[in-house]
Design brief:
The protein has one helix and 14 strands, in the order αββββββββββββββ. The chain has one helix at 2-12, and strands spanning 17-34, 47-50, 52-65, 68-82, 86-87, 97-120, 123-149, 154-159, 163-164, 178-190, 193-202, 210-213, 219-222, 225-242.
């Protein structure tokens, strides 16, 4: 709806160059975690998890004055990460072993301000920057465990239960579904085809602050902080493009 309204408004004021199209590409969401517990030293609790996936979406592009303009759009992003199998005793390659499986689904509404440099006829280099509003659909996490069956001489794998990190349950690292990032990037356009790539910096703390019970049974405040960032590269085509 937002994209359609922008397109109609732009048409009404006769913006000289505008287009509407689709894009698809690679993405790497990055989950950063600092100090899950307020009393812990920050340096000892830093953890970064990189997911690997793709994004696909719709995009509307308009140039207002010379090469200055904007791009808005809506993306769906998916990411996944399967950690390596690790033994409970890291000094020995023995069983049982565990791994964490994560999958990530979200919608993104973005607005980028850009400048296009025309380097040849219908050929442009571009620089852009702007915010993205992210809404998490699912952040699924599961812990798998495998053991050695000495009687049958085989490896037995137990897939744990999935839980959604957006749920309001008792998990320590529940996440907020809304997040805002600020992106910077560059791109290339030839006629109706374009390539864009950049990095989005998380501007919000995605972790909910709550209480938890430690090993001794004491209730303590948890002050989890972190950031959700993202690398991305997108290839697209304008299904409709007016370059007059």
């Amino acid at each position: 709806m937002v994209i359609a309204c922008m397109a109609v408004s732009a048409w009404a004021v006769e913006i000289p160059k505008q287009g509407f199209g689709v894009q698809i590409g690679w993405s790497q969401p990055i989950i950063r975690l600092n100090s899950p517990i307020a009393d812990y030293p920050k340096d000892s609790m830093v953890n970064t998890v990189k997911l690997y996936g793709f994004k696909v979406g719709l995009v509307y592009d308009a140039s207002y004055i010379a090469g200055f303009g904007s791009t808005i759009g809506l993306n769906y992003t998916f990411g996944v990460n399967n950690s390596k199998w690790k033994s409970d005793n890291p000094n020995y390659n023995q069983y049982p072993k565990t791994r964490t499986v994560i999958n990530y689904h979200q919608l993104e509404l973005f607005v980028d301000w850009q400048y296009k440099f025309e380097i040849a006829k219908e050929t442009y280099l571009m620089l852009y920057t702007g915010p993205t509003l992210q809404y998490g659909l699912t952040f699924g996490m599961r812990v798998d465990k495998k053991t050695e069956d000495f009687v049958k001489g085989e490896i037995v794998t137990d897939n744990g239960d999935w839980y959604n990190a957006y749920d309001t349950d008792n998990h320590n690292n529940n996440l907020r579904q809304l997040n805002i990032t600020w992106g910077v990037g560059a791109g290339f356009q030839y006629k109706r085809y374009f390539l864009r790539g950049g990095y989005d910096f998380g501007l919000m703390n995605p972790y909910k602050n709550a209480q938890f019970v430690d090993a001794a049974g004491n209730t303590m405040d948890r002050n989890t902080r972190g950031r959700l960032d993202q690398w991305n590269i997108r290839l697209g085509v304008y299904l409709w493009y007016n370059d007059k």
